[in-house]
């Protein structure tokens, strides 16, 4: 399947421009959305997930008009919002069974296998009879993942899914997602650049509602080949460097500041060439829109 | 620290629209009520009297409780809801500063909102006269004391209590639902006090159970004179003070405990849930998902609907607060059901009809609030739990999501409508009562309660969707519901088709179930369901799925959604609603006339203005009446063919007659020719009856007699009348034309202008341009008064043929000449010609069980005795049998022969609600002694007593009939009560007569206390408590002194002198006094004269100065 987003725009009543002429084309596989807080990632995902209207533009899932034919999209969708709650008095299994029914899994035996399988996959099988109100944050998040995967969705949208998961759980989940990504479109938003580089076949950088870049992680990194230089500097000299060099990131290590800059040719002045990574790509794009200095 | 938090709270509140909404709502409501005079103050009590203000402030404090729950519940909960705990815990805030700052900051606003009421009253009492809504004279002085005294003694303590309670509960339970439950419990306290106020007079419960003091205020002010009500404030003493101390203390204790136990850490952290399983090793790496078969068409919707409904119901029933609220309500209801109504201190049997009536009458408010709360919870459940984003991205279309919620709430409604049976059946079985009326449970549940609750669900649901804010929607729903309740309860506006979810009034009875009212109620229920569905369609246009949206966005969405199925559905439902509405309108306002309460009064006023000129017209008296009455109980139709012989007993010739048709379709003929008539008065059409003629003829007709009827001459007329009830009406109608238990006097039109029909309330008279009216005392020696009967009419010779449907039996005055079946109908022929009877005579038909016997009297005559009763009501049959037999024997020996050949005691319908004695036939209504639970041997045998009083009426009221002068009604009220006392005194168990005396004493004391005109000498008595209780006690005291036999001898002489007079003069109070005076020893003349002719200074006493037994009840 293919998801085509054309010139999508959305401005909230309080004047915040959440999306501005967003255009993206997504095929099967995992697609990463990178961006700072408030970039519009969640707005974009919620719009695709039929939860809010757009002011302009279009979204098509193959030939389904996502903005108009919401019910059809919901039938193909698996969605895990960034923040969500549960009915506290219903058990995990009962609730998952309920969601499966709503997603059209109508054969009781099949549904039971599905629910059990999912609970197993997210490591909640032993707690399936417990009421969701007694679940911890991590357990709840895993339950959320399970519900998003019910009913063979063709489009999976997960908004910062690994928040609250420990590293082991996170790996399990990513493995599961990559597996699914072979036959489905998976949209994943995250703050963690590394996740995108290891998992996603394609990604986009969004900032202040605009798509700053979209493409494959490897290609993106390749564009910066030979352009990234780094240097250790004393902390109090940062302002001088800032005035001269396009700093894309800073890192404080043991009292010394490591800075990375973007340069067409070797800048000298003690800067050494450095192998570019996806984080450089990210910061170099974000830096065009906002101050990325973290110190 | 305190001041900062306090000021933060103040600033926060000032930014919230809710504060202004509540303030303006209460202000506007108070202004409206006081400007329009809708407070319902009695005549001569000014609208802004301290009494009205106290009552109004107590009533509005119930509404303020809701306001305080909304305001006091949030200051702490807000921090939980918005998850501000992280930084609150890290700030240097003191516990005291936080706690008291939040509490006082919010409480301050509750008090300010309360002041809106005072402001509204003040402005209302100013604007009322300015806009001419109420005359200036209806308002008294606006003294600050009258405003602020009740504010500080009623409103503020109540608000302190409710505010502290709600604040404390949220702090303790960290949950807002605890507020619903506690708020509902407080309301139950009020309802309980209210129930006791109207059923069992237990002062302690009335005053103390009600935290709003409304029933206390009501009770404390009842019986006060207008003068007192206009000037006195309620003293803060006794039970009133105890109530205030009680509830303020409860509030203070709750607050103190909350403060003592309050800790930031515990409050913010709540119950800790640890992820204890985090260390468990993960199972093997998951593979991908096996594809599953999905089905999203066809049966999908049904299955989804089912699954959603199930989950929603689980959400409701797994909520502890739901059970808490329900248990509270059920305990309350069990208590009320268990105790039931009392008469003479004796419980009724726990009857199904009482359960369903009391449930539908007083408990539905409680149920409505449960529905209001749970509709809000259900509509917003996803948003409140945070599940919305997942849920809203799932495939089910909007209509399925909404339908599932509505169906769940309807299941809740169905469960709640089973409440009377759920509580009632165990109560009935535990009290050993097996005459369970299953059909009434069934009818009440499915015809009245359930559809009504469904209408409430739809209404609340639509409001939640449209308002889209849980608490604001509560406010809107409760306000609209209360407003409709208030305007209809105070009879301000009662057009049922415009009062959402209101239905015509009905009493359930064992004899007739809900009878003929089933049909109109059914139509109204369909109508309201259609209205509710229309509301739902409108609401669903505003349904917000996904992210919260601005109002403008929702409006845009709504207009986008209003196409295709939504438009067709809306159109279809609107059409259905309008068709049903049209049919109801056709019945209520076209087939029948609907008049507003004002129009009713206006018509009465027009009658008085235009027809009072006929008041002095001479009227012929009926001397012979022969009629055939055909009763059709199933069709609520009655047809009468009567031949009347009338005589002119006046000294003037009679050439014309004013006839009052009283809703009958009739004509009058003379010598086979229908007499022509003119209509002397037309009314303007009621403003709700658009398609009826603009001028409606009144029921009055003016006939010119073919030949004037000269004094002493007689004439014969034929009257043919039809009583029918086409369609149905705005509320209860045809209460006497029941399917089982029809009751009629024969449907003859009345003659002459009846001053008794004039409006009595002088405030209303003034509104309609009528002069003030005061009761006119007709002195004992007034010759017209002495020559006419108080009840009108004269002794007539009576011949009656009645037919009814096959399965029913008829009872009427006269000896039963013949009873036969003909053409599938049951016929009865009664004759009462010697000595004849004084009207009114009554006819009853029902499916009776009959008990018959004969009583041989000591004069050798044998009297037929019969009791006709509803087959289920046989428990006290023996008591009635004994009363009739004992009474017949004793009274005929004491007061002269029983005047008729037979005596019947007949059970009449629940709508008649008292006892009636007609010649030879006594009617006692269903809820009276028939259903008294007298299995406890020590109880007062009041069926015996009340039957004895009615039986004594056969002598005192049917044989000797009072004239139309002051004090004369002693003859048919005080004397029969005395006779019953004398009969009771003969019973071996002396406590029986003592109880009857206690109740009469209580009636007398109560009457005396609440009599603002002052008690009169007995011989001039004109008020109920003087005429029966005082007269009976006075006679009893005399009997105790001179011996009952001696007193009876005097009464017998009186009877012999005045029995069955065919013309005036008739007996009056002086005649009775003179007879008594002539029969007592000389030593008692002064005492008797004092007792009868002097203004009494205390309760009746016997000549030995022994005081009569004191009041005890």
UniProtKB/TrEMBL annotation, chain A:
PROSITE patterns: ABC_TRANSPORTER_2. Keywords: ATP-binding, Nucleotide-binding, Transport. One of its GO terms (molecular function) is ATP binding. InterPro entries: AAA+_ATPase (IPR003593), ABC_transporter-like_ATP-bd (IPR003439), P-loop_NTPase (IPR027417). Pfam families: ABC_tran (PF00005). Belongs to the ABC transporter superfamily. This is Multidrug ABC transporter ATP-binding protein. It comes from Puia dinghuensis.
TrEMBL record, chain B:
The chain crosses the membrane at residues 20-41, 53-77, 98-121, 148-171, 178-197, 245-264, 320-338, 358-376, 406-426, 438-459, 471-493, 526-547, 568-586. Residues 1103-1113 have a biased composition (Low complexity). Residues 1092-1113 are annotated as: Disordered. Keywords: Membrane, Transmembrane, Transmembrane helix. InterPro entries: Peptidase_M4/M1_CTD_sf (IPR027268). This is Peptidase M1 membrane alanine aminopeptidase domain-containing protein. The lineage of its organism: Bacteria, Pseudomonadati, Bacteroidota, Chitinophagia, Chitinophagales.
């Amino acid at each position: 399947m293919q998801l085509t987003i054309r010139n999508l725009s959305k401005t909230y009543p309080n004047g915040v421009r959440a999306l501005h002429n967003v255009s993206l084309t997504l095929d099967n596989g995992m697609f990463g959305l990178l961006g700072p807080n408030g970039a519009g990632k969640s707005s974009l995902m919620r719009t695709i997930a039929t939860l809010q209207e757009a002011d302009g533009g279009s979204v098509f899932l193959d030939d389904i008009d996502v903005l108009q034919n919401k019910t059809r999209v919901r039938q193909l969708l698996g969605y895990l919002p960034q923040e969500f709650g549960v009915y506290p008095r219903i058990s995990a299994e009962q609730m998952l069974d309920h969601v499966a029914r709503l997603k059209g899994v109508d054969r009781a035996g099949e549904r039971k296998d599905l629910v059990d399988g999912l609970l197993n996959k997210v490591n909640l099988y032993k707690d399936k009879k417990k009421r969701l109100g007694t679940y911890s944050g991590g357990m709840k998040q895993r339950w959320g993942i399970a519900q998003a995967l019910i009913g063979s969705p063709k489009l999976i949208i997960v908004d910062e899914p690994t928040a609250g998961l420990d590293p082991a759980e996170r790996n399990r989940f990513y493995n599961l997602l990559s597996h699914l990504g072979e036959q489905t479109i998976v949209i994943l938003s995250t703050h963690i650049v590394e996740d995108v580089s290891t998992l996603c076949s394609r990604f986009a950088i969004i900032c202040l509602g605009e798509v700053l870049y979209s493409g494959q992680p490897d290609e993106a990194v390749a564009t910066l080949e030979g352009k990234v230089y780094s240097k250790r500097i004393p902390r109090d000299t940062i302002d001088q460097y800032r005035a001269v060099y396009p700093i894309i990131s800073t890192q404080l290590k043991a009292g010394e500041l490591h800075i990375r800059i973007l340069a067409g040719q070797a800048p000298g002045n003690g800067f050494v060439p450095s192998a570019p990574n996806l984080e450089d790509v990210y910061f170099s794009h974000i830096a065009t829109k906002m101050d990325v200095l973290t110190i | 620290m305190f001041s900062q938090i306090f000021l933060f709270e103040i600033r926060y509140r000032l930014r919230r629209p809710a504060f202004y909404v509540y303030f303006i709502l209460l202000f506007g409501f108070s202004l409206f009520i006081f400007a329009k005079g809708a407070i319902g103050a009695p005549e001569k009590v000014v609208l802004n009297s301290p009494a009205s203000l106290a009552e109004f402030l107590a009533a509005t404090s119930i509404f303020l409780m809701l306001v305080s729950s909304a305001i006091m519940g949030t200051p702490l909960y807000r921090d939980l809801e918005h998850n501000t705990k992280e930084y609150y815990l890290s700030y240097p805030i003191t516990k005291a500063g936080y706690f008291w700052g939040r509490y006082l900051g919010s409480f301050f606003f509750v008090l300010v909102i309360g002041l809106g009421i005072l402001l509204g009253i003040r402005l209302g009492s100013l604007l009322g006269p300015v806009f001419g809504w109420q005359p200036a004279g209806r308002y008294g002085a606006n003294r600050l004391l009258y405003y602020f005294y009740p504010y500080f003694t009623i409103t503020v303590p109540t608000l302190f209590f409710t505010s502290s309670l709600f604040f404390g509960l949220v702090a303790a339970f960290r949950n807002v639902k605890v507020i619903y439950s506690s708020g509902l419990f407080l309301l139950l306290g009020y309802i309980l006090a209210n129930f006791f106020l109207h059923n069992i007079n237990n002062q302690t419960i009335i005053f103390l159970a009600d935290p709003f003091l409304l029933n206390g205020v009501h009770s404390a002010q009842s019986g006060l004179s207008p003068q007192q009500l206009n000037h006195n404030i309620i003293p803060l003493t006794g039970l009133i003070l105890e109530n205030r101390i009680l509830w303020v203390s409860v509030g203070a204790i709750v607050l103190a405990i909350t403060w003592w136990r309050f800790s930031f850490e515990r409050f913010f952290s709540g119950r800790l849930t640890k992820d204890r399983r985090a260390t468990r090793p993960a199972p093997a790496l998951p593979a991908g998902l096996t594809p599953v078969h999905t089905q999203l068409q066809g049966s999908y919707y049904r299955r989804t609907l089912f699954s959603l409904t199930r989950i929603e119901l689980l959400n409701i029933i797994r909520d502890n607060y739901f059970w808490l609220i329900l248990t509270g309500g059920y305990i309350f209801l069990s208590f009320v059901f268990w105790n039931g109504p009392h008469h003479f201190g004796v419980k009724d049997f726990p009857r199904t009809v009482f359960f369903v009536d009391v449930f539908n009458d007083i408990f539905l408010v409680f149920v409505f609030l449960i529905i209001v709360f749970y509709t809000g919870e259900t509509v917003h459940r996803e948003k409140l739990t945070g599940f919305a984003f997942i849920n809203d991205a799932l495939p089910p279309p909007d209509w399925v999501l909404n339908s599932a919620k509505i169906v769940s709430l309807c299941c809740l409604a169905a469960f709640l409508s089973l409440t009377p049976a759920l509580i009632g059946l165990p109560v009935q079985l535990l009290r050993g009562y097996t005459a369970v009326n299953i059909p009434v449970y069934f009818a009440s549940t499915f015809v009245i309660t359930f559809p009504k609750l469904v209408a409430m669900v739809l209404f609340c649901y639509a409001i939640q969707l449209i308002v889209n804010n849980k608490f604001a929607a509560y406010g809107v729903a409760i306000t609209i519901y209360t407003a409709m309740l208030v305007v209809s309860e105070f009879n301000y506006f009662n057009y049922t088709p415009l009062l959402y979810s209101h239905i015509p009034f009905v009493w359930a009875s064992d004899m007739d179930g809900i009878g003929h009212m089933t049909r109109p109620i059914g139509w109204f229920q369909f109508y309201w369901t259609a209205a509710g569905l229309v509301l739902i369609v409108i609401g669903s246009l505003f349904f917000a799925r996904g992210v919260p949206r601005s109002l403008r966005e929702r409006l845009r969405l709504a207009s986008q959604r209003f196409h295709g199925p939504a438009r067709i559905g809306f159109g279809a439902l609107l059409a259905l609603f309008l068709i049903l509405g049209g049919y109801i309108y056709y019945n209520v306002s076209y087939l029948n006339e609907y008049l507003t309460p004002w129009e009713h009064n206006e018509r009465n006023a027009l009658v008085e203005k235009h027809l009072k000129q006929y008041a002095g017209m001479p009227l012929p008296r009926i001397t012979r009446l022969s009629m055939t009455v055909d009763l059709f109980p199933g069709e609520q139709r009655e047809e009468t063919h009567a031949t009347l012989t009338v005589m002119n007993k006046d000294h003037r010739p009679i050439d014309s007659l004013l006839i009052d048709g009283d809703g009958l379709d009739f004509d009058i003929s003379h010598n086979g020719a229908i007499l022509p008539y003119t209509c002397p008065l037309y009314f303007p059409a009621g403003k709700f009856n658009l398609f009826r003629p603009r001028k409606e003829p009144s029921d009055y007709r003016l006939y010119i007699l073919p030949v004037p009827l000269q004094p002493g001459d007689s004439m014969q007329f034929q009257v043919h009348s039809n009583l029918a009830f086409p369609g149905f009406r705005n509320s209860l109608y045809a209460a006497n034309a029941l399917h089982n238990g029809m009751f009629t006097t024969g449907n003859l039109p009345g003659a002459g202008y009846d001053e008794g029909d004039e409006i009595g309330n002088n405030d209303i008279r003034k509104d309609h341009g009528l002069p003030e009216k005061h009761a006119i005392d007709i002195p004992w020696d007034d010759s017209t008064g002495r020559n006419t009967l108080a009840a009108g009419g004269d002794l007539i010779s009576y011949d009656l043929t009645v037919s009814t449907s096959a399965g029913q039996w008829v009872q009427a005055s006269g000896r039963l000449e013949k009873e036969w079946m003909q053409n599938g109908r049951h016929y009865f022929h009664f004759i009462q010609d010697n000595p004849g009877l004084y009207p009114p005579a009554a006819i009853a038909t029902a499916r009776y069980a009959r008990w018959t016997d004969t009583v041989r009297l000591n004069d050798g005559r044998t009297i037929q005795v019969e009791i006709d009763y509803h087959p289920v009501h046989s428990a006290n049959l023996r008591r009635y049998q004994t009363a009739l037999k004992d009474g017949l024997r004793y009274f005929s020996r004491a007061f002269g022969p029983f005047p008729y050949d037979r005596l019947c005691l007949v059970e009449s319908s629940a709508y008649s609600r008292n006892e009636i004695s007609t010649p030879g036939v006594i009617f006692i209504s269903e809820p009276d002694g028939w259903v008294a639970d007298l299995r406890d041997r020590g109880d007062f045998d009041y069926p015996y007593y009340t039957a004895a009083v009615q039986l004594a009426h056969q002598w005192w009221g049917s044989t000797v009939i009072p004239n139309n002068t002051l004090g004369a009604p002693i003859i048919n009220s005080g004397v029969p009560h005395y006779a019953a006392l004398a009969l009771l005194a003969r019973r071996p168990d002396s406590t029986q007569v003592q109880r009857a005396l206690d109740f009469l004493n209580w009636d007398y004391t109560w009457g005396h206390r609440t009599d603002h005109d002052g008690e009169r000498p007995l011989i001039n008595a004109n008020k109920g408590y003087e005429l029966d209780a005082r007269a009976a006690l006075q006679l009893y005291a005399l009997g105790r002194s001179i011996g009952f036999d001696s007193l009876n001898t005097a009464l017998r002489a009186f009877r012999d002198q005045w029995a069955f007079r065919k013309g005036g003069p008739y007996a009056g109070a002086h005649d009775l006094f003179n007879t008594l005076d002539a029969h007592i020893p000389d030593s008692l003349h002064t005492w008797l004269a004092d007792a009868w002719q002097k203004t009494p200074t205390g309760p009746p006493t016997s000549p030995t100065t022994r005081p009569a037994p004191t009041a005890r009840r």
